[in-house]
Specification:
2 domains, Rossmann fold, alpha/beta, single chain, six-stranded parallel beta sheet, globular
Length: 353
């Protein structure tokens, strides 16, 4: 049984991070491997997610004051899900992660925006600089974030060249790998797509919510996502449920899901979903909900996926919130199924010695 170490963003209060981490871990185990998540504590991520013990500046303080109680409950529920469903290494940090360098036969980097150097503060651990020479090094569904040249591009290129196989999550990342290394990278789906909707229901058991609402998950920076959702709700006689852990917004009902069961239940039972979240868009498609998506930073991953699945017309960035024709669900599901099978085949090759 191949020993696999999975390095991803798993310490977070973001539902998407847990969903993608679990999906990739689950699928690697299903392929017959002995997998564990490398419990790496990246300082930049710890600060960003409010997981550090110390408060670092006004942003941390404001986050703890405004969202502290609800986020603490959410963090506890997500940690319980992770501890019940995944195996972890001992915690490691930048100064001792190399102690795991020879612990695995295969190390998988991915997914999420682990190569977003603006997020990790150029932490090269996510490019597997710690892994031993005899270890098979691969990347699955990794996202880059910003593609502009950076000071450490030469070092990043050297680490990418040492990898046995690279698969990324968007077209722009394929071009980025080619530019830095001359290598061809595979394009694969987000790990959450590796599992069917039936598998997600069995794992998370989404809660039932009474229909009659539009769900908003992550507003767009200009507020258009929420405004369009309110207009849609008014036209259809629905209420607006806004996943919001802070101050309630007028005209909406704030909901604060703590568990994956609550979160997926809100999506599954919504009449429509308006979201500026990558995984909010994905699970709306999995559950065949009428959907509008909006872009934020790192928008290429969302647009690349929407194009691949044939739902680019659901992007609300430049629309006036008008009604759209129904989504052709058989067509979308056929594309999802095909993308899933292609990606599983690539992952199986990666974890096979």
């Amino acid at each position: 049984m191949t020993k696999v170490g999975l390095l991803t963003f798993h310490r977070s209060t973001n539902f998407g991070s847990y969903l993608q981490a679990y999906a990739l871990y689950h699928k690697i185990c299903y392929l017959g491997c002995d997998c564990e998540v490398i419990d790496y504590r990246c300082p930049a991520i710890e600060r960003r997610e409010g997981l550090a013990a110390k408060i670092h500046g006004p942003r941390d303080l404001a986050k703890k004051i405004l969202f502290g109680r609800a986020l603490k409950k959410k963090k506890s529920a997500l940690n319980k899900f992770a501890s019940r469903n995944m195996e972890f290494s001992q915690p490691v940090y930048p100064d001792d992660v190399r102690t795991l360098g020879e612990s695995y036969e295969v190390v998988v980097a991915g997914s999420d925006i682990i190569w977003g150097r603006d997020i990790t503060e150029s932490d090269h651990t996510y490019f597997l600089d710690f892994a031993g020479d005899k270890t098979k090094k691969v990347a699955f569904a990794s996202s880059v974030g910003a593609y502009e040249p950076q000071d450490d591009d030469e070092e990043v290129a050297r680490l990418l060249i040492k990898m046995n196989r690279i698969a990324v999550r968007e077209d722009g990342a394929v071009d980025w790998v080619k530019r830095l290394t001359g290598r061809d990278a595979d394009l694969v789906c987000d790990p959450t797509m590796l599992l069917t909707t039936a598998e997600w229901d069995a794992i998370t058991q989404p809660m039932d919510f009474k229909p009659g609402y539009v769900l908003v998950y992550f507003d767009s920076p200009d507020g258009k996502c929420l405004r369009d959702a309110c207009l849609y709700a008014e036209r259809h006689g629905l209420i607006v449920k806004n996943i919001n852990y802070g101050i309630p917004l007028r005209g909406t009902q704030s909901v604060k899901p703590a568990s994956l069961s609550e979160f997926l239940g809100l999506i599954k039972n919504a009449d429509a979903v308006f979201t500026a979240s990558y995984h909010g868009m994905l699970f709306s498609l999995y559950y065949e909900r009428d959907m509008r998506f909006y872009t934020r930073c790192h928008s290429t991953r969302v647009l690349s996926l929407a194009k691949r699945l044939g739902v680019l017309d659901r992007c609300g960035d430049e629309t006036n919130g008008a009604e759209l024709p129904p989504i052709d669900w058989p067509h979308v599901q056929e594309r999802i199924s095909s993308f899933r099978e292609e990606s599983i085949a690539i992952l199986e090759d990666m974890v096979t010695l």
